[in-house]
Amino acid sequence: MSERKGEVLILDRINRGFGSGAARLEVLKGVSLSVRPGEMVALVGPSGCGKSTLLHIAGLLEKADGGDVVIDGQGANGLGDDARTAIRRSTIGFVYQYHHLLREFSAAENVALPQMIAGTARRAARQRADELLASVGLAKRAEHRPAELSGGEQQRVAIVRALANKPKLLLADEPTGNLDERTAAEVFALLQNLVRGTGVAALIATHNVSLAQRMDRRVTLHEGVIQAL
């Protein structure tokens, strides 16, 4: 793989399949793409095409059968589980279609918790959580638990939680897929502003064509390969 500078994420000739023998399904066939700081890249494609699998590999949640994953200049191939976990914790933020907030904790506690897991003191983690929630208009909802928040509010909490540890890479899997059209547009605008403001590199899987068109670049995953648009 040739050296490339300035890209937070590099996926180089990623292969991934499931099953064995005649029943084996090759989901990713030599997929290559990269994402730069402050760039929003839309990953589009039909359901079942492997978008989530590719995000899991990019986020070091799953290992590829072949190819290279480089995150912030560090190659992940050959790293053990502890080292991969350390990179996820310090460098990668995740947002999912379903917010996955912890029901028994408040919005602020949900944002503070990943910071504390990474070693931030409780008071500092809470202060940053309050600042992040205020930045997305949720200062007055900080003490509310997820069940007391609307779907859009829950997803805003999930987004700032993903950014709490100041990651360099943000991976989002259908982050507006569970929202109505108006709320989806509002949440996307917020996400876009945060990406621009923080300089995080963002790879976002989405079915929403109108939102994909508003990103810096779109790539389509079709029959296991990437097609740039």
Structure notes:
With about 230 residues, this protein is α/β, with parallel strands linked by helices. The protein has a single domain (about 35-65, about 80-229), classed as P-loop containing nucleotide triphosphate hydrolases (Rossmann fold, 3-Layer(aba) Sandwich), CATH 3.40.50.300. About 35% of the residues lie in helices and about 25% in strands. The chain has helices at about 50-60, 80-90, 105-115, 120-135, 150-165, 180-200, 210; strands at about 10-20, 25-35, 40-45, 65-70, 75, 90-95, 170-175, 200-205, 215-220, 225-229. Helix 6 links the parallel strand 7 and strand 8 (about 200-205). Helix 3 packs parallel to helix 5 (about 150-165) and helix 5 packs parallel to helix 6. The mean pLDDT is about 90.
